[in-house]
Amino acid sequence: MSDVNLVEFARRFERRAAASVVALATDAAPLADGWMVFGGVGSYVNKSCGYGYGQEVTGAELDALVTFFSSRGVEPKAELSPFVPVALLQGLAERGFVLREFETVLYRPLRGDEASLSPVRGAPPGLTVERVDPSDDAAVRTFVEVSGSGFVPEGESMPEVFLSVGLKSARQPASDSFLARLDGVPVGAGGCESSEGLTTLYGTSVLPAYRRRGVQQALISARLARAVERGSDMAAIMSAPGIPTERNAMRMGFLMAYSRAVLVKHGAGLEPSP
């Protein structure tokens, strides 16, 4: 796996990540070779991404970035790989952008035998992972509620903007949604999107009472097998650093590609985005 060109992988991953959020947006505009995306106040698709590779980002374009988000009442946000030009970072800093957090991007070349990873060793008896029929409204809603459960504080209901974007995402033609059940009870969920030979795994959650029992690894295994069916040669996962998702991905053969930087510009009356 060491022969993977990480700069080229980053371009490939960042381009697909940008296209994915554009498909879910209520409003989007190009920014150099990437995009600025808005999906409503409180939406996780509110971001600028996918730029800084094949085209210079001018000062006027960075000013437009600030205006695009602030005019919609949300903090301007930029998600960048470490391979973007230093001049871009300087331009964002001059406009008041600060580092909010890092995200880890992991990769795994696909060999075609990923179906052999199932069943996951140590998984509890009675655990099944099924692909959700996107035309089954009840099943899709269950998937979205379970998949999104790990991204809201425990005990709180899912914000409507999360639910609506999740339902739209689950019905995208390039997407597949998987629901894990233990003795018939939904206990975990995760999605993936396949395009241009790259399958990105996302939105994985396991209900608190069922964690540390192999559920997440079973969900990863099922999506890797689906990636091969979709004709992908590479799989990717984006995770917060050091959380169980990152550790489970590495147990399943993923390697760290790079850390993304999430930069934001604070402002009076501007709402942060997840």
Description:
By secondary structure, the protein is an alpha+beta fold. The chain folds into two domains: 6-104 and 259-264, no CATH class; 111-232, Gcn5-related N-acetyltransferase (GNAT) (Aminopeptidase, 3-Layer(aba) Sandwich). The protein has helices spanning 6-24, 59-70, 86-94, 137-148, 160-170, 215-229, 244-251, and strands at 27-31, 34-38, 47-49, 77-80, 98-109, 127-131, 175-182, 185-195, 198-206, 234-239, 255-264. The strands form two sheets. The protein has an eight-stranded mixed β-sheet, sandwiched between helices. A hairpin with a 2-residue loop joins β8 and β9 (198-206). The longest helix has 19 residues, at 6-24. It is globular, with a radius of gyration of 19 Å. The two termini are 32 Å apart. 41% of the residues are buried. InterPro entries: Acyl_CoA_acyltransferase, GNAT_dom. This is GNAT family N-acetyltransferase. Pfam families: Acetyltransf_1 (PF00583).
Q: In brief, what are we looking at here?
A:
With 274 residues, this protein is of the alpha+beta class.
Question: Which features characterize this protein?
Answer:
274 residues; 2 domains; eight-stranded mixed beta sheet; Aminopeptidase
